[in-house]
Write a structure and sequence with these properties.
The protein has 12 helices and 41 strands. By secondary structure, it is an alpha+beta fold.
Length: about 675
Amino acid sequence: MTQPEDLSAVVAVTGLALAPDGSRLAVSTAEPDIVGNAYRHEIALFDRTSNGWTAAGVPRIGGSGAVFSPDGTELAYVERDASEAAHVVVLDLGSRSARRVLSWPEVVGDLAWSPGGRHLGFVARQRMAPRGVLYADRADPPRVVRHLQYRSDTVGWTCDRPRHCFAVDVREASPPVNLSGDRADDSCLVWLGEAEYAFVSRRHLGAELDIVSDVFLGSVDWSSGERSVRQLTATDRQWGPLAAVPGAGALYGRYARVREFPCHERVARLDTATGAVVELAPGYDRSMTGALEVRVDPVSGRRELCTLAASEGRVDLVTVADSVSLDGAVTVAPGQRSAKAFAVAGQTVVLAEAAGARPVEVYEVLGSALSQVTAFHDRYTTAVGSVEPTYVGATADDGTAIDCWVLRPPPGRPVVGAVLYIPGGGGQFGYDYHHDMQVLASSGIAVIFGNARGSGGYGEDWARAVCGPRSRFGGTGWCGVDGTDMLAIVGSALRSLPDVEPRRVAVMGGSYGGLMSAYLGFTTDVFAAIVAERGPYNLEAMAATSDEGSWFFDAYIGATVAEDPEQYRRSSVMSYVDQASAPVLILHSEQDLRCPVQQAEELFTALRRRDHDVTFVRFPDESHELSRSGSPVHRVQRSQVIRDWLLARLSGSVAAFEAESPGI
């Protein structure tokens, strides 16, 4: 059975890279190290043989972000040291010799070889030192803030640490060249030629009040380092990532019309001369995500884009033809799975994906079938006995069909109760491996999960159903149709769980899921316990303190707090605390910038002043991403706390639980 500490055996695939001829594969992984309370970032190399793929005769490389050189003879990747400095390393795959070509004090990412293999592009933040300020040991200078978007969750301060695009010469030691500029926030570097490139930047007036970005073209004189940059697009959407065919003048990008948020991400071709945008697969009503790559047919020269798309609980690898005559995207090797990463080289396609009872593995796509390459979790899934979710489906009050699933405890395990697990805002649950869910099921708690209106993975109308009444889409707002959908999910799931007593059903979720868990728990008598994690509970305060507050609520609700305070209050959990009766567990990270910890403090204080049964668990030094990328020890502790607290509440053994666990 799956235990919280089994997280140490769950490997994440953080990137895939294929050599240009498809003969070699690099798999970048991250593995939790609970003893060291860190992640081991490693790169595994595989060679193609007549029998498929075999591990190359090279020890695993300590690093991440691997990319092959254009001729396939070298591999670039990033090492991190104990001080968190980043070092870009180039490995000669023939001689097995490695050399550092760059050291940088901040995180380095998005490595990209120039077409000739002489330069290596990258994206990194660069600290700007304020002028005219007294410096002293052990005393950082003050930060000057003149822009509403001045920090970002998991990143921290951004007002004095903008991202830039750089390039370093891998043949001759020299300082890196700044390709994009000095003050704007830049990303998504791709090469169009040996000295020509494209990137994404946010430089327009009013950038602090939206997330619109533009594509820029640049060229550099390598001898002098002088660059020339011009804006290509019309400041009407958000761009990134980009993909290109060097030397062919072909530039592609994924975009979102964020002034119509919530909205899908889609793909397009850009004319590098005029900036004209040709939208590809405009009728495909699913949102695309992940990397973007161009595949060129060696015979016909036909181009198609490869990316991922969230759809009905799955994440598919899809291709889109570079043709305005085709409206759709084609799913590669369809199946009930969730893709995490992919790479293409000629006719070779590799894919990292997970399924309900199995963590991620890497596969080669062979027609419509998959051939397994890695075996990270073969022993793990056998040892812990992961459980496969069962699709049950539900029907809303208005007849709308809703996808939902049940993860039952393993055979022979007594059923203590059930919990409705609500996904975060814009996310989806479905055909994926969730360690949290497996832990709860192994403890005897059936997990109910599904995708109510407002979730990702469906059409834009589905996502916009929970926009505010004053928005351009005229939805119900949060705590409207999404709430009734979730109650329908519970009702349908319980019909498939005859051994679960209806009075022993809890509700839990994170971020938006935390808001909805508290709302449903406070305003209905369906749930016996509430777990609210990293949630926004007072939207008026959130609009002023969240790292996304300058634009997110204006777009979703359709008005500012000053324009429609009533809608902010109606969708805020704080408006319903007087109705709370079920016990509440609040979990929050102290460095959460998306939903600041003040949100949890306010909810906890309000409940305690009403003498409510509430427990508040605070995690130091963690962000909004605690459950996904927080420190391994805190992730295990979080899982233990949720499991033990729910078991105590659902089984009626609260007194024994509190006596044995005085810390929580």
